[in-house]
Design brief:
TIM Barrel
């Protein structure tokens, strides 16, 4: 298992509302979690960030709140967008950037993603930078090449990686119930870490947390998170139910 502190992140996507989101964060906050051993993060939709933070402020806990996306623009006439400054002012500490759904559905390019990473860092937000190959890439034996290219372009001109977390999410495994085998996931995580070591140095790569995302469940979490280079999970559907999410958070207690 990795010596890096695991991060278990729950991406709510466009789910839950004020009441169900409040209930979920309160369940998590009141649960028995050893924050010395694991970091826990929830990423609500932007309209639910403030209610989530308000609920958590009333309970002694260490749960991190993140945005699911930010604009690459500072401010202006960009209807429907949320700026990094707004997210930071809300009290959220992280943002996801480059999730596969953003790449596929909203055509977030590697260049745009890089601008978003820079904008997040300008406002002192930590970043979970998502990378991953499609089924076409994998069947064409281009999975590693694709993922490493996304890593390199996403981190272009980023001087320090201290506020960066990477999340490897094979697109073909997201929301499908199909999961990369622990061996396949480990091999990709190892390739990513070796690539970061090549471009930024081994010391930086050794400290970098790389999460796995792609149909993580209470059933497969322990085997996946026990791999040497897997430092946590980016969880989708299983993060919407406190019972399931807590089983993933406490994967090492099974």
């Amino acid at each position: 298992m990795s010596k890096r502190k695991p991060l278990i992140a729950g991406n709510w996507k466009m789910n839950l509302d004020k009441l169900t989101g409040k209930k979920l964060v309160e369940d998590l906050a009141n649960a028995n979690i050893d924050y010395k051993k694991v970091d826990v993060l929830v990423a609500p939709s932007s309209i639910l960030i403030q209610p989530a933070l308000c609920s958590l402020s009333k309970i002694k806990n260490s749960i991190i709140v993140a945005a699911q996306n930010i604009s690459h623009e500072e401010k202006g006439a960009f209807t429907g967008e949320t700026s990094a400054a707004m997210v930071a002012a809300s009290g959220a500490k992280y943002t996801l950037i480059g999730h596969s759904e953003r790449r596929q559905l909203y055509v977030d390019t590697d260049q745009l993603i890089n601008l978003k990473v820079k904008k997040a860092l300008e406002h002192n937000l930590s970043v979970i930078l998502c990378v991953g190959e499609t089924l076409w890439d994998r069947e064409a034996s281009a999975a590693v090449e694709t993922v490493l290219a996304q890593v390199g372009k996403g981190l272009k001109d980023i001087k320090s990686l201290t506020k960066i977390v990477l999340a490897y999410e094979p697109v073909w495994a997201i929301g499908t119930g199909v999961t990369a085998s622990p061996k396949d996931a480990q091999n990709m995580h190892k390739a990513i870490r070796e690539y970061v070591a090549k471009i930024r140095g081994k010391a930086v790569a050794d400290k970098l947390r790389i999460l796995y995302g792609g149909s993580v469940t209470p059933i497969n979490a322990k085997e996946l998170l026990s791999q040497k280079d897997i430092d946590g999970a980016l969880v989708g559907g299983a993060s919407l139910k406190s019972e399931d999410f807590l089983k993933i958070i406490n994967f090492d207690k099974k």
